[in-house]
Design goal:
Blueprint: H1 2-9, H2 12-21, H3 23-37, E1 45-46, H4 48-54, H5 75-88, E2 92-96, H6 102-110, E3 116-121, H7 137-141, E4 158-162, H8 168-171, E5 178-183, H9 189-199, E6 203-212, H10 224-231, E7 238-241, E8 246-249, H11 252-261, H12 271-274
Parallel strand pairs: 1-7, 2-3, 2-5, 3-4, 5-6
Antiparallel strand pairs: 6-8, 7-8
Amino acid sequence: MEAAKLVDGLSLAAVRTLVQRGPAAARRVVGGTLATVWPKPPPQVMDYWDIVRAFPVKENLVIDGGSWQDGCTAPLERFLTAQLLRFFRPAAIAEVGTYRGTTTRLLLDNMLPEARVFTIDLPLDAKASAVAAASDERLIEHRQVGVEYRDHPLAKNVTQILGNTFEPATWEQVPDGIDFAFIDASHSYEAVRNDTERLWPKLSARAVVLWHDFTETDSPERGVGKYLRERMPREPDIFACAGTDMACRIPQTLLLEGAARVPGWHPAGDYPQRRPRGPLPWQQPTL
């Protein structure tokens, strides 16, 4: 199957791009070809309205309106992240992929004041060409690690870890008992699998995990969707967040508790008629 995909992805355009512009650009050409030839089945998806109604909070969310550089999260993604933070109130948070620290600042703005954040990025002198399974080379080369959160009043609660996530020594600096995680480093299949599986043993039983850059099409530059779709059939608590490029894992018991809250937000009492399969359609044939 993988050999067949490789053959389908090859083209004269890919070869020409490899020669003229290098492997990163060629990977994007191959990925575009594969997205057309190999369509993907629909993943487990939860509507963003159902997410906010399942995990509501009666407090203001804080979303910085001035940090929209290339590579950062979108407005709705920030809203959902902030709401989940305020609902679940984690004590220990892990972030894989600090970049400028925009999401780090979002975490600080919406977490408990005594919570801790452990955020990982590559060493400051790392070059994209020397990083295994790297994607988005332009972001690696032009990053300013942590610049967005350094002046935050809770910056002292952040442990900035500089290291390659393929190296065990990097993960030795992340404690056990992580309650909330945001994975947004390199987006190749190999990288997201490595980051997720090295993080997983450090999670608490109630941990919520968010992945950024989940897509329904796969390429060497975008493997988050492929990796998570492989996990979804055996893990019903992993789902894509409709209207965003995020995927989420909320432990099954907590997810079902949240789903049970959703119909209460419809005063006409017609949610079961309007959404007969409920907010978790991949799990529930009827509400």
